[in-house]
Amino acid sequence: MYEALFQPLQVRNKMLRNRVVMPPMVTNMGLVTEQAVAWYAERAKGGVGLVIVESTPLERLQDKAVRDGLPRLAEAVHSAGALIAIQLFFSPAVDGRPVSVSGTEEAPAITPSQIQARADQFAECALMLQRCGFDGVEPHGAHGFFLNQFFSPRHNRRQDEFGGSLEGRMRTGLTIVSAIRRAVGRDMLILYRHTPDEQTPDGYGLEDTLVFAERLQEAGVDILDISPSTRAGSDNHAGMAAAVKRVADIPVIAVGGMKDPAAACAAIEAGKCDLVAIGRGLIAEPHWVNKVKSGDLSQITWCIECNERCFGHLREGLPIGCKVNPQAGKEYLVKTE
User: What is the four-CA torsion angle of 190, 231, 145, 27, rounded to 10 degrees?
Assistant: First the structure.
């Protein structure tokens, strides 16, 4: 059963053992702490093909303690058989001062030279991560965060080369991807997370996204991580991935509504996506993949979408956990012989 989920997938010179992805989820555990390393390693042991580490501001990667701990994190995931990437976050600040896309009373517009400097920083961080053993990086261009705002006509009212037309609104993302590809060469994967439809009257729609998807591929992206707005309804998430897949010749990840193995398998079999991301389902059940593969779904601890100790803990600044899985976040306390 669910054979499509367990087919390997080669992307560049990397081989994913199956089609299941652990998406980036902020944990409040730190990035390379014992707790965080055990958290990611447990999901890799549970069978996922690719672990994407939580959204990480570029500034955080300047910390020597973090840099020194990254090889250990990569090795822990690799030892369990999964590939590892990390999502990189474009913070709306320069030298500690807030900036915005188009300029506000509180935050001036980021300048073209500052945008280029940030693209160079993305590239430097990607090269450092490659040397630490990471297989890929993913600029976070989704869900209304700063990089996504450059793509949105609702936010981007600039009149320079980084705004105005669709070409201008695409430029920041494309500049970042191109800089990363030049730095890391051919051997590192570049993913890009994007929300396909802003779901607002003055935002962008799917047609703009389809153009962007083709251009991202040309710039060097290997995998498109299509993460719709929550307003879209999870029933349509695979459909939005499918629309992107029709114009892209690179693998596409479907995000949302994929914790049901039948739905996930059907989306891949129908050609709507190449990979599926399971988020909260892997918090509740780290071994979701292995248990689905065994065929005994009765052994799975299912996410009940209560949001109490995942989103709830995030709001309180606590390490995330899970109501139905008391061991979530406590993996580092389990000592192995």
Answer: -70
CA–CA separation, 60 vs 184, rounded Å?
20
pLDDT in tens, 22-68: 999 999 999 999 999 999 999 999 999 999 999 999 999 999 999 99
pLDDT digits 0-9 by tens, 98-145: 999 999 999 999 999 999 999 999 999 999 999 999 999 999 999 999
The pTM score is: 0.96
Cβ neighbours of residue 238 closer than 8 Å, sequence gap 6 or more: 254, 257, 258, 263, 267, 270, 272, 273
312 secondary structure, DSSP code = H
Tell me the CATH number of domain 18-333, given options 3.40.50.410, 3.20.20.70, 3.30.1330.90, 3.40.1190.20. 3.20.20.70
What confidence score (pLDDT) does residue 337 get? Answer: 39
Is residue 75 classed as helix, strand or coil in its secondary structure? helix
Name the residue ranges covered by the structural domains of the chain.
18-333
Q: Using an 8 Å Cβ cutoff, are 226 and 252 in contact?
A: yes
Using DSSP, state whether 81 is helix, strand or coil: coil
The span from the CA of 208 to the CA of 198, in Å, is: 10
